[in-house]
Amino acid sequence: MGISALTPPPVPGSDAALHLEFPDNRLLVELCGEYDRNLTHLESHLGVQIIRRGNQLNIIGPADASAQVADILEALYQRLEEGRSVEPGDVAALIRLGRAGTSEETPAEQLEMFRTGRLEIRTRKKMISPRTKAQQDYTRALMTHELNFGIGPAGTGKTYIAVAVAVQMFSDGLVDKILLSRPAVEAGERLGFLPGDMKEKVDPYMQPLYDALNDFLPGKQLQKLMEERRIEIAPLAFMRGRTLSNAFVVLDEAQNATEMQMKMFLTRLGEGSRMAITGDRSQVDLPRGVASGLRAAERILEGVDGIGFSYFTSADVVRHPLVARIIQAYERDEEKSV
Fold first, then answer.
1. Whole-angstrom Cα distance, residue 79 to residue 56?
2. What is the pTM of this model?
3. What are the φ and ψ backbone dihedral angles of 246, each rounded to 5 degrees?
4. pLDDT in tens, 59-71
5. Which end of the chain is more exposed for a tag (fewer CB within 10 A), N or C?
6. Residues near 4 by Cβ (< 8 Å), separated by ≥ 6?
């Protein structure tokens, strides 16, 4: 049984009081979030007041904002009815969908995409739902292309989704192992300046990949799979000379690979394997004068059959909303300097 709207739709431009009734109190608790944090988030960002009384939510505020809040709550509640989770980031994502100029799709089309959950990634710990059309298209590309590039700013889910798809394919028996890699180049630092053995030197660079895996696999299972080398995390330099068969391979931070490293990595692709290459062209940490292998690969491989390219913009950022605004500000500054 769905939600009942106890008042007629408000007239745009006027103040309104909307009343929504939810049939399942347990799901309503999940919808509101711990200490009603989801409701608080909606109130602070959309300028409304939400009052909870029993199994009802009363939304008071400008008509347009109240209607948007009602749509968001209905979309989130429908996800819960279908057995899917609601994360804090889902609320922020739906708020952004309603803002003009953030996507090729209208807010209503994006909301419907979110509501119906057309595409999901299954992992051992949770289900992942791509939140924007770019993420949906990227997920499909990872599942249908043997080699796919995900290119765009930080916070758009490029690596997170790639690792999630890798875990799903591994769990489904479509690949025998997962290999995650990154260039060990960060803001001019070098491995030799870090204390410890090779693993201790490398692990700080690989931590984002460990974090993603921990989101998708139980700790003991992940540890066992790594001990069995069915899941590997290694610097890009360690890929030389290997042939990677029946594996899902992810190269993260690919903008920091040199042209020779990128060519070396791409030619490791073996039978039954898939590759995902992710990167952000605006965050190259290579020494001055050293060309990024990601840019070269874009130019050289464009139009090659079997290779896909997925692009993201600041509209696809799923981290803190401020991250999207920071990226947009930098993009505007770059346009001024051109």
1. 18
2. 0.70
3. 50, 45
4. 999 888 888 889 8
5. C
6. 20, 21, 23
